[in-house]
Amino acid sequence: MLKGTDLIGLPIIASDSGQTLATTQDFIISPEADRLIGLLIKKGGWTGQAQVVPWGEIVVAELTAIIVRSDASIVDADDVPDIQSVLESNKRLRGTRMCTTDGVDLGVIVDLFFSRKTGMTEGYEVCGRLLDAASSHCVFVSASYYPIIEGKTAWVPPAVADFVRQQIENTRQFRLGENHHTGQRRTAQDLRDSALVSMAEMVRGHRLLWDVRTAEGRLIAVRGQPITEAVIQRAIADNRLRELLRAVDVAWFDRRDMS
């Protein structure tokens, strides 16, 4: 899974020559197709035409670089009608407020997550504060809720509010949890971003494709086992939540993971 803002500021490298061509300025989303359709390389204006890399020209997207087919992969935006249309409309999902259709304000979309294979939107990072919440939150809201975009608002079903409240409570409980063996917070590593905890909720009930172990080799869960609340908490206690997600074919690549 790709996190949109992690694609910004990366070098664009041609696979045929190995030459660094440019640096990404932003990512371009088609609200109608609900997918990543390209990367912005140069903003348009009085200095010239906007330049982009269409999604189909990307060979691989990593945290260190974007590999494209060749130097010809960077084209003028008006050569790609779908991209030019998005740029002209100035529609940006980041900054859009997400609300339920019965009037609950869930927060603002601050980032998006995409499939590394298809570019399809898989979810949204939403940050804000529910009326009955004591503090602000950031949660992962699955694209399977099919938000309807109208102006600067993304409308989702009322059930999403309960889902968000449950994730806020789970995150609060995880943060309060203490590792009695070390006397330290058991969630210090994996709860740097509460959206990651929310993603664990999305895979509850999925079966593991391989064993998940602690750094010392102790089993947390075995291949074929369904993910339960107990499994999630064990993974968090041992800082193996990302490994648990990868074991059900969900990988969130975040630059902070490389530190």
What does this protein structure show overall?
It is built from 5 helices and 19 strands. By secondary structure, it is of the alpha+beta class. It folds into 3 domains: about 1-90, Roll (SH3 type barrels); about 95-160, SH3 type barrels (Roll); about 170-259, no CATH class. The strands form 5 sheets. Strands 1, 10, 11, 12, 13, 14 and 15 form a 7-stranded mixed β-sheet that branches. Strands 3-2-8-7 form a 4-stranded mixed β-sheet, with no helix packed on it. A 4-stranded antiparallel β-sheet has the order 4-5-6-9, with helices on one face. About 35% of the residues are buried. The model is unreliable at about 180-190 and about 255-259 (pLDDT under 50).
Helix content: 10-25%
SSE pattern, N- to C-terminal: EEEEEEEEEHEEEEEEHEEHEEHH
Rg result: 20 Å
Major sheet attributes: 7 strands, mixed
Shape: globular
What is the percentage of strand-forming residues?
A: 25-35%
- Quote the average pLDDT: 81
Number of helices: 5
- Per DSSP E runs of 2 or more residues, the count of β-strands stands at 19
Which structural class should the secondary elements be placed in?
alpha+beta
Task: Offer a concise description of the structure.
The protein is of the alpha+beta class.
Search tags:
3 domains; SH3 type barrels; disordered C terminus; globular; 5 helices; single chain; alpha+beta; 259 residues; seven-stranded mixed beta sheet
Write the SSE topology:
Blueprint (H helix, E strand, L loop, with lengths): L1 E2 L7 E4 L5 E4 L2 E5 L4 E8 L8 E4 L3 E4 L4 E3 L6 E2 L4 H9 L7 E4 L4 E10 L6 E8 L8 E6 L5 E3 L2 E4 L2 H18 L1 E2 L4 E2 L8 H9 L9 E2 L5 E3 L7 H9 L3 H6 L13
Parallel strand pairs: 2-8, 10-15
Antiparallel strand pairs: 1-11, 2-3, 4-5, 5-6, 6-9, 7-8, 10-11, 11-12, 12-13, 14-15, 16-17, 18-19
Helix pairs in contact: 2-3
